[in-house]
Protein 1
Amino acid sequence: MKTIQLPSVTFKVIGPDHPITASVGEDALLPCHLSPSMSAQEMEVRWFRSKFSEPVHLYQNGKDQADQQIPDYQGRTELLKEGIVNGSVVLRIRNISPSDYGQFNCFFRSRNFYEDAVLELKVAEVKVTLDPETAHPRLKLSDDKTTVTWESKHQALPDNPERFDQVFCVLGSEGFSSGRIYWEVEGMGRIWAIGVARESVRRKGPISFTPEEGIWGIEQSRNCYSLLTTPECPLPMSESPVKVRIYVHYEKEEVAFFNPDNADRIATLTASFRGEKIFPFFWVCGSVGGRGGDNP
């Protein structure tokens, strides 16, 4: 009896040669295709991030396997199959959030061969500039108003109503009252607090960094991290992040903090914006003790 061995069909998976960029709240389209062109209808098509066993989307046995998806992507993905007979598919990810930033693997498997490609998704952020009219006199802003530094001496600045006069705080120049927005903060030093504040936050005298004052954020002091809640809630952090990504969903009144280097969620706070404008909030201190404010 003669055994007939079918030839193994090999292929490459081709993705875009540039990162794909999407804004928070929008949809992202991640395309990839087989080379040479061939049908992928009977193949497995798996999208995953860091772990193969945790699919973002899985097409197998001729249909989508929604029950196999990891929770973060359930109900958010769709595999567009118009070109699947030619080996071309597109993954649609709905309602992009900052945690979607990073790499996605597009994996094809036939009966006797498999291959994948890596795609990079970038989530567009807003550029935050600092409002010099709100900055405490010991805070020095860079010329482009994107960096703030604590100084030991007061600057001669007018005591306008918008300016913090006791706590070493500054707000972002642009406020917002709808939609989804995020920005990143880096180079924060040893003692800081970051988050958002309502427009009505008190500027004069000592204030508490709490939701009752209209502030939602996280802080670091002595390498210890805490949520700015009442009472403060310690945050378990294995290492100090180089950057922190702050994501706000105004309609949901939600403020979330991420480590953009590994997409880990640091914390999420439920806020009460009361229909007010929300501004990026920063507290910078050059010494340990109290809230880093001046005496009355």
Protein 2
Amino acid sequence: MIDELILVRHGKAEDRGRTINDNHRTLTDQGIKEFQQILPGLVSLIGTGQEVRLWSSPLKRAVQTAAMISDSLGIGTVHEFKFIGDGNWKAFSRQVAGQRLPGCLIVIGHQPYLSEWSASLTGLYLPFKKGSAAGFRLKTHSPLQGDLLWFLQPKAFRRLDSKSAEILPPLLQS
């Protein structure tokens, strides 16, 4: 069963407009650049030696963000689920509960759903900016509940270096 859950909000995307369908909005060049700066910090917080799975909303900007994470971690498959794009908590929690192998699940999604999901998990409504992420240790799978391990906004990720990342995991284990 999944032990650790990481929720990630996609990078900066094209503005909403009448000419672009929301499902097809892509990351901007600046959004790609900024998320690439975040990646080393995010990757440093993912435990080593465990199975890592990557799930994404099917919306283009989330899929692009998931691809960057996948490339950084060497994960070949990104699974896309409509319930992530729609923010369907019941479908999401059922799918997580159905996972039989231990490990870490990284989910790339959208606002306000990520904040709502963090509130359902822990009681804490976290303000996910674009490029933010939160790590949780799951306590129960039915209902899906967990403890917040860490929550970082993009600026904090960019400041996270290898030395501070080495300090954080032992602190989180206690």
Protein 3
Amino acid sequence: MNQVHHNSHALDVVRLGDVQYQVPEPGVLRHVDARSAAVEVMTDLHRVPAATIPPTMPLDKVRQAMVLRGVRMLLVVDEQRAVKGLVTTHDLLGERPVAVSQARGLKPAELTVADIMIPVESIEAFTLRDVLKASVGDVIHALRHIGRQHALVIERDEPGTAPAVRGIFSASQIARQMGIPPFVGDVAKTFAEIEAVIGA
């Protein structure tokens, strides 16, 4: 490549010879340890589209959506893209669907995601500002403290504006990036396995 200088520009322009373009490598996750930056294990919604569903979706369709998208958590949003809640595989496969259906005199198949989701006012979240200063170990301890395998990361463009969901933390993704084999179990067991690896 030969450089061509233009005095009117701050950047040097180059002429291309043989060149290839880069493409992202889907499914490739960077290996991390407890000292790695927290953003290394955050799903950045500026780069990866959020997996979302409407509040009216029946529970059997929610399970299918998770399988098809290869995720364990879905954001529940309305037509204006406002976050109404979230739902995880634990919420779907745990006792909540049965308890709600019995309390309302309905069959589990009649429930929608709005009936069992974690409402937005109960969602645990961290600010992007704090996340940028945190480590993977900090995230693990925070998730264990709140007793959830998922948490959201929010940011505000300007003071006084409504926060926007910028990212997602997932304990299962953190485990994969730390080289821990896939696991299925309750929250306490999940973090016991992760913390055994990092020596926490």
Protein 4
Amino acid sequence: MWLNRNITKTKADKNSLELLFRNLYDLNGEGIKSWIVNRFVSEYRGNNPHPFIIKMQDYNKYIMEGYAVEHYFFLKQWVRSCSAVISKTDYKDVQTYEMENMVTEYFGNGKKSHIELLLDMAEGFGISRKKIMETKPLKNTEKAINRWREIAQKNEWIEIMAAMHSLELIANSALRPYGARYDYFNLGAFDNNNVPETVKAFLLEGYHSDNAHSIGALNIIEKYSRDYNIENIQDAYLASTYVFYNYLEARIERGEMIENKQY
């Protein structure tokens, strides 16, 4: 599956595979930031976008409910990964960046935090916080969290940043120059009277914050990358986006379970 997604879906001999692998890691004369953005856009928001992106082009309450439930587990791991970065570096700008990110996610910097907006959205659909907190994540979500936890424990700080903050590109609204064909969600949702205000508030916060968060992190990675092994950074990114793809599918799966009254 990894080969199909990242290398080729057609049968290839040893020599062809070697060339394809070399091309995969080739920076093409650019930095690691461009390599990550181009790879991510191609896989998630290009001509053949992720199924979750397609689902988000039209408002669907069940998809948003599935999003709310599974994303809660993602956010719990997110702050663990950010704290791992802080613990593994002495660079003040890196530590400051991650602390600000964690505050935004969990405490809000004077506004409602990302996790509070998520739980508000769930409650607006009739899913209590207690129920979410007592829920076991779906298999793909659990596998993804375990992989991210492993990266946080074993990898260098810069590799953890690449693995996690690259994922914020999913909601970045400024990726058209990189070949993005789809927005994260249909922006018409903000003017749609059928979309609850709690959903709009959650989407709006991400719409405003993820541009700065994702690119800010990639700028830091680019800044310090010359002092680290580029291929290790690429490996961490590839490992993370592989499980992220499956995690997004878990959002869809949870939404279908809710629609079919299986949750």
